[in-house]
Amino acid sequence: MTVAQPWGFMLTHRTRRARSAPAHHHETEAETMSEEPNDERPCLHCLIAELIDEFYTEYGSLSGEMDTIDVDELITAIAKLVADVSSSCDAALRRRILEGLKREIARFEAEFQAEDASTSASKVRH
């Protein structure tokens, strides 16, 4: 599957999956505080990623390309979901939710950049 990025670059499904695996975290604050991990609870990130892959495999992008993820459509869907989930919250809590989302995006982006840098360095040496 290919990912159509808003700036025109394409990312293959295999590259996207391989890239997301090392920075993948199942551990939540609740699991950190708990003595016993919850092995029966599925990873929400994995379920969402699988659903997105299945959706674009079956329906393609808005432009009609099959096996292509439309990043703009994906961002809009995530934004709508966050707005829907936080709509019943007061303004202060909505602001904290959005700030938390921005922090998490920045944290994972930093992890992906570090991973890319280490991968590039190891490719140069080999």
Count of all domains: 2
| Helix-strand pattern | EEHHHEHH
Query: Count of helical segments?
Result: 5
Largest sheet: 3 strands, mixed
Helix content: 55-70%
Q: In angstroms, what is the radius of gyration? A: 17 Å
Quaternary: single chain
Strand content: 5-15%
If strands are numbered along the chain, what order do they take across the biggest sheet?
A: 2-1-3
What's the overall geometry? extended
Number of strands: 3
Low-confidence stretches: 5-34
| Overall pLDDT score | 76
Give the class from helix and strand content and strand pairing. Answer: mainly alpha
Alpha carbon gap, first and last residue: 28 Å
Descriptive report:
The protein is built from five helices and three strands. Strands 2-1-3 form a three-stranded mixed β-sheet. The chain starts with a strand and ends with a helix. It has 126 residues and is mainly alpha-helical. A hairpin with a 5-residue loop joins strand 1 and strand 2. The chain is 63% helix and 7% strand.
